Amino acid sequence: MIRDEELWASLPLPSFLIDPDDRIADINSAAEGFLNASAKAVTGTPVWDQVMIDAPIEEAFDRARQNGTPLFVNDIDVGSGNKAPLQCALQIAPLVGRPGYMLLLISPRELAGRMTQSHSVKSAAKSAIGMAEMLAHEIKNPLAGITGAAQLLSMNLTPEDLELTDLIVTESRRIVKLLEQVEQFGNLTEPDFRPVNIHDVLDRARRSALLGFGAHMKIIEDYDPSLPMAYGDPDQLLQVVLNLLKNASEAADPKGGTIRIHSYFEHSFRLRRSDGTGQSLPLQVEIIDDGPGLPDKIKADIFDPFVSGRENGTGLGLALVSKIISDHDGWISVTSVPGKTVFRLSLPRVPRELRDQQN
């Protein structure tokens, strides 16, 4: 016979047991991950202080308790105070045999929406890779000829006419640079997986940013020092973090802004694929900036190739980031409002068999 505590611990959704005074009587491990807090820390606290819902739900909750009926609420923003709100569905029901006690289950919509988007991103990435190879072959050679011809012409021109040949050379080189970025997107090698101290990667990226594109920014470290080793390619993961820091720096006010790099462990985070297999992704890294936020018109497509919120942007940076994280069997998501944009990376830890070998 399966015991009640085994069922409770096995529930995949964040689940809360609420007493008659609307205080938390217990939470399961998925809820600990959702709140980023232990059951011991939140037990006895008012539930609505821990579960922040962007809607007046208390009256409907009280009616469900009084009438002994379940309550279902869809498409509602739910946060915990420690992370940006997620769109969720709520399932609320009275606990049989315990008058006044209620069960609250939270079903985040983020994963379902991003799973669908992930498939479209991969499809778009394949198309972009094919186009990259064609562009590189068909355009770079003629451009080299155009640049050379313009430089030869410039030898016998007046200073006024030199402006025109200089423009030809400058614009040709700009197009070549764009094509090289597209080639980089298409020629990314498979990850060289190994145990990685993710904080070493974050430190390298932070130092590089402060010496270059992020010199005008304040970058705050907010690390969990107990985080175990990640499993991935350190150079590719560095490229991901540098890209995210660069985006945040370029979006900020020219006078500067603040970026917080936050790492933490979320043991309940698990990605389930369409074939039924699952992947545990407990290592979380968030790049949080206080810039203007993503434009509404591109939020849903931000990881697609050639989608950019900046003038003259290529739209390949976040597509490359998404491809690298996907190749790592990881997860990337974003929440953005004016004044706070959070890119969240979810990564696997070193497989158990390799950890056992190291021990």
What does this 3D model show about the protein?
- The protein has 359 residues and is an alpha+beta fold.
- It has a six-stranded antiparallel sheet.
- Helix 6 packs antiparallel against helix 7 and helix 9 packs antiparallel against helix 10.
- The radius of gyration is 25 Å and the shape is elongated.
Mass-distribution shape: elongated
| Rg measurement, Å | 25 Å
Counting copies of identical and different chains, the oligomeric state is single chain
Largest sheet, strands/sense/barrel: 6 strands, antiparallel
Protein structure class = alpha+beta
Uncertain runs with pLDDT below 50, 5 residues or more?
A: 112-119
Give the number of helices.
11
Give a count of the beta strands, DSSP E runs of length 2 or more. 15
Distance between the termini: 36 Å
Strand order of the largest sheet: 2-1-6-5-4-3
Strand share of the residues?
A: 15-25%
Q: What's the average pLDDT?
A: 81
Q: Determine the fraction of residues in helical runs and give it as a percent range.
A: 40-55%
List keywords for this structure.
alpha+beta, single chain, 23% strand, six-stranded antiparallel β-sheet, elongated, 359 residues
Give the SSE layout.
Blueprint: H1 4-10, E1 15-18, E2 24-27, H2 29-35, H3 39-42, H4 47-50, E3 52-53, H5 58-67, E4 71-79, E5 86-94, E6 102-108, H6 110-153, H7 159-186, E7 194-196, H8 198-211, E8 218-222, E9 230-232, H9 234-251, E10 258-265, E11 270-272, E12 278-280, E13 283-289, H10 317-327, E14 331-337, E15 340-347, H11 352-358
Parallel strand pairs: 8-10
Antiparallel strand pairs: 1-2, 1-6, 3-4, 4-5, 5-6, 7-9, 10-13, 11-12, 13-15, 14-15
Helix pairs in contact: 6-7, 6-10, 8-9, 9-10
